[in-house]
Protein backbone atom coordinates (compact mmCIF):
# COMPACT_ATOMS: atom_id res chain seq x y z
CA UNK A 1 0.00 0.00 0.00
CA UNK A 2 2.76 2.44 1.01
CA UNK A 3 4.71 1.37 -2.04
CA UNK A 4 1.75 2.16 -4.26
CA UNK A 5 1.30 5.55 -2.65
CA UNK A 6 4.97 6.36 -3.14
CA UNK A 7 4.67 5.42 -6.79
CA UNK A 8 1.70 7.75 -7.21
CA UNK A 9 3.58 10.54 -5.45
CA UNK A 10 6.38 10.08 -7.96
CA UNK A 11 3.94 10.27 -10.85
CA UNK A 12 2.41 13.44 -9.43
CA UNK A 13 5.82 15.01 -8.89
CA UNK A 14 6.85 14.16 -12.43
CA UNK A 15 3.67 15.76 -13.73
CA UNK A 16 4.36 18.82 -11.62
CA UNK A 17 7.76 19.46 -13.14
CA UNK A 18 6.95 18.12 -16.60
CA UNK A 19 7.99 20.34 -19.45
CA UNK A 20 7.52 20.15 -23.18
CA UNK A 21 10.56 19.46 -25.34
CA UNK A 22 10.81 23.18 -26.10
CA UNK A 23 11.18 23.99 -22.42
CA UNK A 24 7.75 25.45 -21.65
CA UNK A 25 5.37 24.30 -18.91
CA UNK A 26 2.53 22.06 -20.05
CA UNK A 27 -0.26 24.09 -21.61
CA UNK A 28 2.08 26.95 -22.53
CA UNK A 29 3.34 27.68 -26.02
CA UNK A 30 6.90 28.41 -27.02
CA UNK A 31 7.38 31.91 -28.44
CA UNK A 32 10.51 33.34 -30.02
CA UNK A 33 12.29 33.71 -26.67
CA UNK A 34 9.84 32.86 -23.89
CA UNK A 35 6.71 30.83 -23.11
CA UNK A 36 3.14 32.11 -23.24
CA UNK A 37 -0.22 31.14 -21.78
CA UNK A 38 -3.39 32.35 -23.48
CA UNK A 39 -6.28 32.43 -21.01
CA UNK A 40 -9.61 30.95 -22.03
CA UNK A 41 -11.47 33.23 -19.65
CA UNK A 42 -11.56 36.92 -18.92
CA UNK A 43 -10.73 39.21 -16.04
CA UNK A 44 -9.82 42.80 -15.26
CA UNK A 45 -6.25 43.94 -15.88
CA UNK A 46 -5.59 43.56 -12.14
CA UNK A 47 -7.06 40.03 -12.19
CA UNK A 48 -4.86 39.14 -15.14
CA UNK A 49 -1.78 40.54 -13.42
CA UNK A 50 -2.52 38.65 -10.23
CA UNK A 51 -3.09 35.34 -12.01
CA UNK A 52 0.14 35.58 -14.00
CA UNK A 53 2.06 36.61 -10.86
CA UNK A 54 0.44 33.77 -8.92
CA UNK A 55 2.24 31.36 -11.21
CA UNK A 56 5.48 33.35 -10.95
CA UNK A 57 5.08 34.75 -14.45
CA UNK A 58 4.02 38.15 -15.77
CA UNK A 59 1.45 39.63 -18.11
CA UNK A 60 3.02 39.34 -21.57
CA UNK A 61 5.30 42.16 -22.68
CA UNK A 62 5.95 41.71 -26.42
CA UNK A 63 8.48 44.53 -26.67
CA UNK A 64 10.18 43.22 -29.81
CA UNK A 65 8.66 42.89 -33.26
CA UNK A 66 9.10 39.14 -33.57
CA UNK A 67 7.34 38.41 -30.28
CA UNK A 68 4.58 40.92 -31.03
CA UNK A 69 3.90 39.27 -34.40
CA UNK A 70 4.00 35.81 -32.82
CA UNK A 71 1.43 36.69 -30.13
CA UNK A 72 -0.92 38.39 -32.57
CA UNK A 73 -0.72 35.52 -35.04
CA UNK A 74 -1.08 32.76 -32.47
CA UNK A 75 -3.97 34.47 -30.68
CA UNK A 76 -5.84 35.10 -33.92
CA UNK A 77 -5.43 31.56 -35.25
CA UNK A 78 -5.66 29.48 -32.05
CA UNK A 79 -7.94 31.59 -29.83
CA UNK A 80 -10.45 33.15 -32.22
CA UNK A 81 -13.15 33.40 -29.53
CA UNK A 82 -11.27 36.33 -27.99
CA UNK A 83 -10.25 39.30 -30.09
CA UNK A 84 -8.47 41.29 -27.38
CA UNK A 85 -5.98 40.12 -24.74
CA UNK A 86 -4.53 42.10 -21.87
CA UNK A 87 -0.80 42.74 -22.02
CA UNK A 88 1.54 44.02 -19.31
CA UNK A 89 1.53 47.67 -20.35
CA UNK A 90 -0.10 50.80 -18.93
CA UNK A 91 -0.13 54.59 -18.90
CA UNK A 92 -1.70 54.77 -15.43
CA UNK A 93 1.24 56.71 -13.96
CA UNK A 94 1.67 59.40 -16.61
CA UNK A 95 -1.20 59.80 -19.04
CA UNK A 96 -0.02 59.12 -22.57
CA UNK A 97 3.29 57.57 -21.53
CA UNK A 98 2.91 53.87 -22.25
CA UNK A 99 5.40 51.55 -20.61
CA UNK A 100 5.87 47.82 -20.13
CA UNK A 101 5.35 46.85 -16.49
CA UNK A 102 8.50 44.94 -15.64
CA UNK A 103 11.07 46.82 -17.73
CA UNK A 104 9.55 50.35 -17.71
CA UNK A 105 10.54 50.62 -21.38
CA UNK A 106 8.29 52.48 -23.79
CA UNK A 107 5.66 50.62 -25.78
CA UNK A 108 6.39 50.86 -29.51
CA UNK A 109 4.03 53.61 -30.74
CA UNK A 110 3.80 52.10 -34.23
CA UNK A 111 1.35 49.38 -33.22
CA UNK A 112 -1.64 51.39 -32.08
CA UNK A 113 -5.00 50.74 -33.70
CA UNK A 114 -6.05 53.73 -35.78
CA UNK A 115 -7.53 56.37 -33.45
CA UNK A 116 -5.78 54.95 -30.39
CA UNK A 117 -4.65 55.37 -27.73
CA UNK A 118 -8.01 57.07 -27.19
CA UNK A 119 -7.92 57.09 -23.36
CA UNK A 120 -11.46 55.66 -23.41
CA UNK A 121 -13.60 58.11 -21.39
CA UNK A 122 -10.46 59.57 -19.76
CA UNK A 123 -9.84 56.19 -18.25
CA UNK A 124 -8.15 54.01 -20.85
CA UNK A 125 -4.95 53.17 -19.04
CA UNK A 126 -4.44 49.46 -19.72
CA UNK A 127 -3.08 47.78 -22.81
CA UNK A 128 -4.68 45.11 -24.96
CA UNK A 129 -3.54 43.29 -28.05
CA UNK A 130 -6.20 43.31 -30.75
CA UNK A 131 -5.17 40.01 -32.27
CA UNK A 132 -7.10 40.02 -35.58
CA UNK A 133 -5.86 43.54 -36.33
CA UNK A 134 -2.34 42.83 -34.99
CA UNK A 135 -2.53 46.17 -33.19
CA UNK A 136 -2.67 47.63 -29.70
CA UNK A 137 -5.62 49.25 -27.96
CA UNK A 138 -6.04 51.14 -24.71
CA UNK A 139 -9.01 50.14 -22.57
CA UNK A 140 -10.40 50.82 -19.11
CA UNK A 141 -8.50 48.61 -16.67
CA UNK A 142 -11.74 47.29 -15.15
CA UNK A 143 -13.01 45.95 -18.49
CA UNK A 144 -13.04 42.17 -18.82
CA UNK A 145 -10.68 40.61 -21.35
CA UNK A 146 -8.73 37.42 -21.82
CA UNK A 147 -5.01 37.79 -21.19
CA UNK A 148 -1.59 36.38 -22.01
CA UNK A 149 1.00 35.42 -19.38
CA UNK A 150 4.70 35.20 -20.19
CA UNK A 151 7.24 32.87 -18.56
CA UNK A 152 10.92 32.30 -19.03
CA UNK A 153 11.58 29.24 -21.16
CA UNK A 154 14.07 26.63 -20.11
CA UNK A 155 14.50 24.13 -17.32
CA UNK A 156 11.98 24.43 -14.49
CA UNK A 157 13.30 25.57 -11.15
CA UNK A 158 14.02 22.89 -8.57
CA UNK A 159 10.90 22.11 -6.62
CA UNK A 160 11.57 21.73 -2.91
CA UNK A 161 8.82 20.10 -0.92
CA UNK A 162 8.70 19.77 2.81
CA1 LIG B 1 -4.62 56.61 -20.70
CA1 LIG C 1 -9.00 52.60 -26.93
TrEMBL record:
Pfam families: Lectin_C. PROSITE patterns: C_TYPE_LECTIN_1, C_TYPE_LECTIN_2. It comes from the Eukaryota. Keywords: Disulfide bond, Signal. SUPFAM superfamilies: C-type lectin-like. InterPro entries: C-type_lectin-like (IPR001304), C-type_lectin-like/link_sf (IPR016186), C-type_lectin/snaclec_domain (IPR050111), C-type_lectin_CS (IPR018378), CTDL_fold (IPR016187). CDD domains: CLECT. Residues 31-150 form the C-type lectin domain. Residues 1-21 form the signal peptide. Coiled coil: none annotated. This is Perlucin.
